[in-house]
Protein: Histidine kinase/HSP90-like ATPase domain-containing protein
Amino acid sequence: MPSTLPDEPDTLAPDQALDGAVEHETKLFDRRRTTPSAARSFVAETLTQWGRTERLDDIRLCTSELAANAVLHGAPAGGQVLVRVELHATVLRIEVHDGGNARPEKREARETAADGRGLLLVSAIADHWGVEERQGPGKCVWAAFHHGVVPAC
Structure:
């Protein structure tokens, strides 16, 4: 895993392309100060229900950072943030959608700065991350985590 934020978001290699989701859950959140915490809880509860708690702390942290960025820089006032959790055979993907058009940028936070490290953390913790356009306004920022194969039911 890289320790610095790449110039561009990273993508899954073609041989790591996502297959159809085995499980997925989506939830809308109003743009509020409490959204990152609520999104983190939603993702943790979903993964616990699915019995997929490996790397839960990493996934919660990335969810919180992506949701905070959506609230601070993406969702317009009165807007909403959509959080989607997708479980694939070997990849777990967290998506955070917002209505803003500005793409996340590499930021070099000063040592004394209280913020500006969110995507640096996501880049260091997630196996992959990226930004995708959506139909209509806004964007989707995602983080992916490799895991063991989903057992057949």
In short: The first strand starts at residue 23 and ends at 30. The domain at 22-106+116-146 is CATH 3.30.565.10 (Heat Shock Protein 90). The two ends are 32 Å apart (CA to CA).
